[in-house]
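Contributing new records

If you add data, match the layout below exactly. Sequence lines come first and carry their own label; structure lines follow with theirs. Keep one chain per record. Anything else will be rejected by the validation script.
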Amino acid sequence: MTLLVVEDEPGITAFVQQGLEAAGYPVATATDGWTGLELAQREDVRLVVLDLGLPGLTGDKVLERIRQLRPDLPVILLTARDSVADRVAGLEAGADDYVVKPFSFSELLARVRARLRQPTQTTSTVLVAGDLELDVLARRARTGGREVELSTREFALLEVLMRNPGHVLSRPQLLDRVWGYDFDGASNVVEVYVGHLRRKLGADRIETVRGAGYRLEA
């Protein structure tokens, strides 16, 4: 298992590499987007720490390509872009977590460990609930025989709900599993995306359990 750090600032690269290696992780590094993308395709790479401001191929484009080639590879963005809009854009583009510079290495390490603890889904690649079908590998959703266009986060939210049919998932649980545990707890992002899914899949597909959370109705 190798962790990949794609960062063009030598001081930050060395700092992160030394810290991860001291924690027992083998580390590969890249200083530009094209090299980072090439290394990310290696089978032994289990997680990527990715800067957005990269020369050659920008971090945004690297993330986009990774999601096409290895949709389940955890990616943590490490960037100076600190606005809420930037965070939302990064997570919506498919990042699993978002760390803003300057940062504490202990926090970054905790986030790395949290992502590596999450089990890789090796079964149930096609999820079914009533007439709703979600193909996890092909990244396709169908309901009533028609294909439905979903954004990256809409797909991730629906996948979490469909892997827990009939179970109530709380707002904090959904924030953790879909947006990462660091996401702004005061945000109404869960409500917004549940609304998106209801408009696309049917208003009665996802039930609101008052004071508890949300439940997918089969």
